Structures
1.
Amino acid sequence: MTYTVVARCPDTRALGICLATSPFGVASRCPHVRSNVAAISSQSHSNWRLALMGLDMVENGLTGAEILKTLAAYDAHFAYRQVGIVPLTGPVAVHTGAKCGPWAGHKHGEDFITMGNGLVGPGVVEAMHDAFLDNAGQDFEERLLRTIEAGFGAGGEPIGQRSAGLIVADANAARPRTDLRIDKVAVPPEEGGDAVKELRALFDSFKPLIPYYADFWLDHPEVGWKQWLAERTA
């Protein structure tokens, strides 16, 4: 029911996740990012407890493979889970349970994982994998979103996407610099709408303001975003 890219940027040490799905509110359940630690998505029949446990275990020095082994022993329903773990450093790790339903699978590179379940076929994950590699020169958020858009272009879910999300945390940041979500599409997929399209529109509007909301506005209450943006685009 969900397709996702989980990744790190070795140059900036940012961590991020972008994903889309047919149910509502995916960004409230599946993606978890902790600065300087890891990005983890728990999906299919998602279990947010696995992601939080995984983040703690990465912080305590366990590898992704060790974490998946521990989670499998802890969770009696692990066959229904799909979990992708990208630590700040070290090998990535991914699990697609045998009961995640058709079509479910994953692929990974050195710094990222593309994975999904309930998709039209393996071409979705393959297209995402290729897109992440092809967009290496883009800003990290843009790269993640283009990866999801490639999955959408390859067919995504058969019934369309009703929610989507994009979350990115900088190194040494107390909170994500970007945390955008479409919890419910304004126009449902059966009427021509889609959460991936809405996430793109939202991100394009928000992108110029990432530096503003990341730190500037905290100490400059007298400068609104319109003024800040006008001064930088004049």
2.
Amino acid sequence: MQIAEHKLARAAKPASCCSDFYEQDWVRQIAGDNFHPGGEALTRRTVEAMELPAGSHVLDLGCGTGTTAMLLARDWSYRVSGVDPSVSNLTRAQSRLERARSVSAARQPQALALQYVPGRASALPFRDASVDGVLSECSFSLFADKPRALAEIRRVLRPGGRLGLTDMAINGSLPQDIQDVIAPWTCLEDALDRSHLLQLFLRAGFVINSEGDESRGLRSMIATLKRNLLVLGAGAIAGGIALPPIDVEALRYWLDRLAGEVNSGVITYLRFNLYCP
């Protein structure tokens, strides 16, 4: 599979990190709006475990195009700040928010208390102790300085604040081919194991309320990506549309390789609900 490996690495490996990869239009076609395993169902479980009352100020850290941020503002009536370093993501998120507010104005329900703010986890643009909760979905593994990011999260959280975090984790070592080709665009390149994550949380001063293995959502996401690839390919052929700039068969191969490592327990997806004393 050397040819497939070469084509995928050349076409898919991002310039900086996997967030650049997910900003490509063809990736959005097969991945949809939820770029994290477990989708909305896992978001709801994580947020419910945070046990924050309506009106709480919640940061969606690494908000992407705003799917979760809008859910937080709409279904929990939180005051939400979506934070992301990507101008492209925030532009899309703001456009979606404006469309939603237009619909809301026509129906006259309660307005969404939601804003999008450019920023990075290493230097959050918020005052000390000004936030009730922080949600981080499949973004912590991307932070270059994880201790600094946790220190910033703790700085902006009020005493009693909550952190809900879901992310990729690795047990042992990734096979070299997956490390070289798959890791850079699946948020695995800097992923840690569970014990290392727990140490980081405790050293940052957090108390662990609950945790769970959410790898089922990762397996489901991989299966969905494979199905959507088939649909994308069939639609392109039927409609005379150009396929995305990647070897689709190679991508299917690597999704199968990734699924194998998930099934073996080497790659997992974990949820942590933490408390800030």
3.
Amino acid sequence: MIDNFSPTVQGYLSYQFEVRKLKPLTINDIKCSLRKVEKFCLQEKIDRDIWQLSLQEYIRWVNSLQDQKQTAKSINKMLSHVRSLIDYAWQLERLDRNVLTGFHLKESETSAIYASLSIEDAQKLMKSFGKLTPAERRSRAILLLLYGCGLRTNELCLLDMNSIDLDRQELKVFGKGDKERVLPLSEALFGELLIYLADRKRKTGPLFSTLIKKARMRQTDVADVVETAAKRADIKIKITPKTLRHAFASHLLNQGVDISMISTLMGHRSPRETGVYIHAEEKDLKTAIFKMSNESEEEK
């Protein structure tokens, strides 16, 4: 996809990639944040570049993100990206100050609570798309990978045809910071993927493409697939791709899988990071994490 950012923003992105040597996934994260500001400007009919906004306009943007239930951690990450862009414009002497200097949200001491998805509802979602048409098989494969591997939406979008190792029955995933992890595929999931792969005429390119333009699917496309599945399955709670990632972790924990193993499968830096994704139905997660933390301290 060709970016349509202004020359100043394009220069900033080139600087981050060519001079600072940031990873492509990090650059994509920055672009995503900047696009959110552009979308806000379009909605508010602000006819200025994103690095030219006033502090009051940025505050309104942050308020709109909070209305969308974005967490303080996520918003602060986006603010960091925009603040860095403004610093770049300031160094070019296009601004006399950075209005976002020192501006951030205080993150809650408690983790965000995510919608819990039962195993029964997860099964309904997986059955919401059949195998009769290529479109249905594609949507089915997307749901199975999100729930069966606990993938982030962007990780799924970045999958290529060669991401699946047919001989080893494994999936190669590139997560945050370009960190690679290899996930084993269950017999059932691998069989479903083989059915989907039979529809593909080429051996290279994105694993999931849009049906009309044949372009790599975007995160919004994946969200649409999940939303359609939830409607078909008549599930009342709001379901997003992230809900399936949470369910992957929660259901594994409830089946007795060690939290450190779940952390590795999800591409987390530590089991502590995994805790915010899990809704233990029959286990006391807080007790489990407290016990794990104590054991770690005793080992030091």
